[in-house]
Amino acid sequence: MSDNQNSGNWWIWKVFWILLGLTAFEVGLGMYKPPFLVDTIFLGTKLLNHVFIILTLIKAGYIVLVFMHLGFEKSTLKWTILIPALVLVPYLLFIILSEGAHAYLML
């Protein structure tokens, strides 16, 4: 009975380990703070912030694909749902970062 019961739970553990790995990588970057990522300024903020934003978008896209069951749909449906988020979120972040840098420089 336990073998039959555990055979359907493998995917949740796969998702758990992938998300744990990405999160551990983010925490490691936050603790270590490589100098080339901290010293490089891009669009008014450190490059490390951009790396965190990209990794967070990757995790969000993966969560949407898995928990909204989009991983089993046709690729056109996947991209129809993911592309607006993957375009609009960086665009809005660009606006926030550029305006924040502009406001900071005007002080």
Distance between the termini: 68 Å
Could you give the count of β-strands?
Answer: 2
The main pleated sheet reads as: 2 strands, antiparallel
Give the overall shape.
flat
Q: How much of the residues is beta strand, in percent?
A: under 5%
Helix percent reads: over 70%
Query: Whole-number average pLDDT?
Result: 85
The radius of gyration computed from the alpha-carbon positions, rounded to a whole number of angstroms, is 18 Å
Separate helix tally: 5
Largest sheet strand order: 1-2
Q: Outline the low-pLDDT stretches.
A: none
The helix/strand order is HHHEEHH
Task: Return the domain count.
Answer: 1
Structural class: mainly alpha
Key terms:
2 strands, 5 helices, 107 residues, mainly alpha, two-stranded antiparallel sheet
